[in-house]
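Tokens for TIGR03089 family protein. Go.
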Amino acid sequence: MPSTIPHLLQRLRGGQHASSPRLTWYGPDGERIELSGRVLENWVAKTSNFLTEELDAEIGTRVRIALPAHWKSAVIALAAWQVGAVVVDDPGIPVDVTFVGPDFAADDAAPSGGALVAVALGALEMGYPGQLPAGAYDYAAAVRQFADSYEPFDAPAEDDAAYESGSESFSQAELSSGFAAPAAAGARVLVAAREGLRASLSRLLGAWAADGSAVLVHAQTEEAEDGRALERIRQTEKVTGA
């Protein structure tokens, strides 16, 4: 089992299944996006470079992901952990960077003292839809400008903090040993986005740590046609784990 997120990403990029699906996303408008291990790691590398080069993120930087469970949310979390940042899941804890989605009103107050990054969630959106919040970075427009590979100046250690909420905290090593939900070796796991970001990240990490893959399904897709769509997804994607 990988001891840190950088070790996990190395396996996704260079393992024997690097070209196989590692994350499949079913969105609310019938969209289906499939990311192989190599493509997933590529997105994480670009986001890691964005965090370090544009936002000066480093070990200990606090990042809040105020987004629904989504493939981009997973990418951002992996990137934050790769650069040694701490993902904070508590609005009462001050942070250095906050990622927000399209439901964040342009005139809402930005997080005090921190950078704001606005994330477009549509499959084909090349930039943030509508008015960009004042002072915010446009993730979709910016991230493509960064390199496809990430070379850390200072890689996180196993005992570096990685996740913090009001009730729990995990180190880099504990992301795999405590935060991640256990999965059978090589399992293809179905993850319901309606469970929330924390639960979804736990399920995703568990699948990848077990050399498996995951199918992440948006709540609207999951509920479509009285649940029949979800059963079709299970069969089509050959899901082996609940």
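The chain has one domain: 5-236.
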